[in-house]
Design goal:
heterodimer; A: four-stranded antiparallel beta sheet; 13 helices; 10 strands; B: three-stranded parallel beta sheet; 15 helices
């Protein structure tokens, strides 16, 4: 940091000769007070950098404080309540579908939870299927078969260039609403019934012993995972073939099967949809609202993921393909063992933003009547008359979901990325 | 390091003093004592809105200064708020907005319409984005305390249920287990839940924010029934390909008093809008129509002369309105009965709906207004 300030002062004592010089030296005193190591403050890089930091910090906090106080003042002036107490009141409104037991006697907070779960449901299932569709479309577009490659190109180009909202309306009003009425449902053996009220199919319903059986299932998953890890490591260390995957699979299947018989009564019961007065009752029900949203999001995001995957594969040096083929790997092995591990480094970062897009785009559900987080939030705003707190809640939920997705994917990204020395 | 902290502190001090100096401009704003401490330059004229909780006349003055009434309404409900062939906004609710515009500016076009969905209308009123909400809003106590001030009931409605005729259903008990299409964010949505719960009936709701999506889903067969205010059901049925294929059940699931509302914070504006509504009703009661309003000026009936501003006063000056605003409103918009008949009368533009409870109290209905005097 150089010499301390007081030493610098001592090195050049100021002399007061006469009145004239006194004035001059006063001005030089000022310039010396405002300088460091002989450099004036306004030209000192360190000072300037600090000043820039402080100015930007003050501006940012000033803006935040301004908006915050603005909201508080406006809310007070207009008699808006900013508390969250209303979440305990009975909601009074029905919701089309819910993963947990819901009725209008439940609270606003509970209704909001239903919305969160519905969003998570469509986002998680959507991410899985969009990824599969995207990979398939990318491989198809890269295929040497002219027809397959052109079909994939047409799909990707059309879907990417039509707004998602238009596609959702298309799926809901032009596809699902045009299915036959519930009385004339299309029947597929199973039985599966498809009508404009949705898809009803045979399903398994948990019985009283389901909880005990789940212990066996969980144990099977955990044990097989550990076994696989251990045996693989053992094989790498010693070179002995351990059949790790086969052994793990046997454990994964054997434990739940054993549990099925050990718990006594069957843990799952078959439930078959039966046509009642208005709708099918029983079985698994997929509403057209959910189906339209899911298909819309999967098809739309799948097209973008396809391009991300294609870019990743094309980024792998051609020599890698040729070398892999030369050592005798077949087409599938080339992809699985050589190309994908390298392509993933390019794919993962843009893939994260596609996942986030899918989750956020699910808020368009409000237009086709699927009660997601945003839909329920809007309804609560209206029925409880509390816009600011509910919007804060909605934003916090999307932020939390997005950041969580981002963190998980970044951890994965760190694992697949090129190890640098 | 010490010196860096010193210079940092110095810079911070300079900044803080600059910010404080900027705040000093409050003194240039003597006409708005309610100003927050640090307004930006040029923001002062809006200050009264911040202090609206205590002021009277703030909305009124803002409307006067703007030269237009900002009216929250809709374009998608036949009879109440819709568009004619030339794209002009017409309807029962729209005419109420126009009546207020005539009272203020003697110009039925001095209105700026803001189109709101059912879910948007509450916040729009709460935040003062609109001066007047005339969008078939049901007056309820919680909305009155949360959204704004409700003026006076202009349309007595009740919630009904519509089903396709071929189902043969006539009462709500027939609908046990049915799927019902409904607009989200409405009283209808909650009444539906209440009614089914009271009767111990099951139902599944399919809700949309957009009213037209609700009826499109109903017509396509997504739902077994749809529910809304009876007037609204009558209106949308008229727009269906085959109106006679749909049946509105003879049951009233709730009271739906449709009432124009204004934001809180301005008693004067509240009074102006109420008085205009009373004027429409009183004019019908006194037999003043848009056709005979000029002849009526010469009438020797004192209440008529007072309403038209020829003799005496019913408080026009106190409201800050022209003495003859009553005559202007009736000439431009017509009385309550004329407005009703224009859209829903026997030869109405939208559909025919018997006035029922919306007859004047003198004819056995519920429409009643305090006297103008």
């Amino acid at each position: 940091m150089g010499r301390p300030f007081h030493q610098a002062m001592r090195a050049k004592p100021v002399r007061y000769l006469d009145h004239k010089v006194n004035i001059m030296s006063q001005s030089s005193l000022v310039s010396r007070l405002l300088s460091r190591r002989g450099v004036p403050l306004w030209r000192d890089v360190v000072v300037l950098q600090w000043a820039a930091q402080i100015v930007s910090a003050v501006l940012v906090f000033g803006f935040l404080a301004f908006f915050f106080s603005n909201v508080m003042q406006a809310a007070e002036a207009r008699g808006l309540s900013l508390g969250f107490d209303f979440l305990d009141q009975a909601s009074g409104f029905p919701l089309g579908e819910s993963m947990i037991e819901y009725n209008p006697a439940r609270t606003f907070g509970y209704a909001f939870l239903v919305g969160i779960l519905n969003t998570l449901k469509v986002a998680l299932i959507g991410i899985v299927f969009a990824t599969l569709l995207g990979i398939a479309a990318a491989l198809a577009r890269l295929s040497s078969n002219w027809l397959v490659s052109k079909i994939a190109s047409v799909y990707i180009e059309i879907i990417r260039n039509v707004p998602l909202l238009v596609q959702l309306f298309f799926w809901y009003f032009a596809v699902f609403q045009q299915l036959p009425a519930v009385k004339d449902s299309i029947e597929i053996s199973g039985p599966i019934y498809i009508s404009q009220r949705g898809l009803y199919m045979v399903w398994a319903e948990p019985t009283s012993t389901f909880g005990y059986w789940m212990i066996f299932v969980t144990a099977g998953i955990v044990l097989s995972g550990m076994l696989n890890l251990f045996l693989t490591r053992y094989q790498i260390r010693t070179g002995h073939t351990t059949y790790s995957v086969t052994t793990a699979l046997i454990v994964l299947i054997a434990l739940p099967v054993a549990g099925w018989f050990l718990v006594g009564a069957s843990p799952l019961a078959k439930t078959v949809p039966v046509l009642a007065k208005f709708n099918y009752v029983g079985g698994l029900r997929l509403t057209p609202e959910f189906a339209s949203l899911l298909i819309g999001l999967v098809v739309y995001t799948g097209a973008f993921i396809a391009e991300v995957v294609r870019a990743g594969i094309l980024a792998v040096n051609k020599g890698q393909f040729e070398a892999a083929r030369a050592v005798g790997l077949n087409q599938m092995q080339v992809l699985r063992l050589v190309v994908f591990p390298q392509a993933l480094r390019v794919i993962i970062p843009p893939l994260i933003s596609q996942y986030l897009n899918l989750t956020k785009n699910s808020s368009l559900a409000i237009l086709i009547g699927y009660p997601d987080l945003f839909f329920v939030g809007r309804t609560i705003i209206n029925q409880a008359g509390r816009a600011v707190p509910v919007f804060l809640l909605i934003m916090a939920c999307y932020l939390f979901t997005s950041l969580t997705t981002s963190i998980i994917m970044n951890i994965y990204n760190r694992r697949v990325r090129l190890v640098e020395r | 390091m010490k010196r860096i902290t010193l210079s940092a502190l110095l810079a911070l001090l300079i900044l803080v003093s600059m910010v404080l100096a900027a705040c000093g401009t409050t003194e240039e704003c003597p006409e708005c004592p309610e100003c927050p401490t640090c307004p930006e330059a040029g923001e002062c004229p809006e200050c009264p809105e911040v202090g609206a909780a205590v002021g009277t006349g703030v909305i009124f003055d803002a409307v006067m200064a703007r030269g237009k009434v900002v009216c929250g309404s809709r374009t998608d409900l036949l009879g109440f708020g819709y568009l004619d062939e030339s794209g002009k906004n017409i309807g029962f609710d729209i005419d109420l907005c126009r009546a207020v515009a005539v009272a203020m500016f003697n110009d039925p076009e001095a209105v700026e319409f803001v189109f709101l969905t059912a879910a948007e209308r509450g916040p729009a009123l709460q935040t003062g984005e609109i001066d007047l909400l005339s969008r078939n809003v049901t007056w309820t106590s919680s909305r009155d305390s949360q959204w704004g001030n409700f003026t006076t009931v202009m349309f007595y409605d009740g919630q009904g249920m519509m089903v396709p005729v071929d189902t043969g259903f006539t009462q709500i008990e027939d609908l046990d287990g049915a799927t019902v299409c409904v607009t989200t964010g409405t009283t209808t949505e909650k009444n539906l839940a209440d009614n089914f719960r009271q009767r111990n009936l099951e139902f599944t709701a399919v809700t949309f924010e957009d009213t037209s999506a609700v009826y499109s889903a109903y017509v396509d067969g997504r739902c077994d029934a749809t529910t809304s205010d009876k007037s609204q059901l009558a209106a949308v049925r008229e727009g269906f390909a085959d109106p006679s294929a749909h049946f509105i059940m003879d049951l009233t699931m709730s009271k739906e008093p449709l009432t124009p509302a204004v934001p809180t914070g301005d008693d004067k504006w509240f009074d102006v809008v109420k008085t205009v509504m009373y004027l429409l009703i009183n004019a019908e009661e006194l037999g003043i129509t848009s056709q005979n309003v000029d002849e009526m000026m010469n009438s020797d009936n004192v209440p008529v002369r007072r309403l038209l501003g020829v003799e005496g006063s019913f408080g026009q000056e106190d409201l800050g309105l022209a003495v003859d605003f009553g005559a202007n409103v009736i000439r431009a918009v017509g009385n309550y009965g004329e407005v009703y008949d224009r859209y829903m009368g026997p030869n109405g533009d939208a559909f025919a709906l018997p006035r029922g409870p919306n007859k004047l109290w003198t004819d056995g209905g519920l429409i009643y207004a305090p006297p103008l005097r």
